[in-house]
Design a protein that fits this description.
This protein has 63 residues and is mostly helical. It has one domain. 79% of the residues lie in helices and 0% in strands. Helix 1 packs across helix 3. The protein is flat.
Length: 63
């Protein structure tokens, strides 16, 4: 539970730090418009791998 909460906080911090509100809206619109696209972009695979790595590190080192 702690790892999930920490992962959510880190994701929200990254989102708040690197993305503007207008870009979020544009990104959500583009994501819903292209929801049927079959191939995942490389950045989605890399971000997923990064999240799995962070979650495993948090699970290992946070009591």
């Amino acid at each position: 539970m702690k790892a999930t909460l920490l992962l959510a906080v880190l994701a929200l911090l990254a989102l708040a730090t690197f993305v503007e509100a207008a870009a979020i809206t544009a990104g959500l619109t583009a994501a819903t418009a292209r929801a049927t696209q079959a191939a995942e972009p490389a950045w989605m695979l890399l971000s997923g791998a990064m999240l799995i790595g962070v979650a495993s590190a948090v699970r290992r080192f946070v009591p």
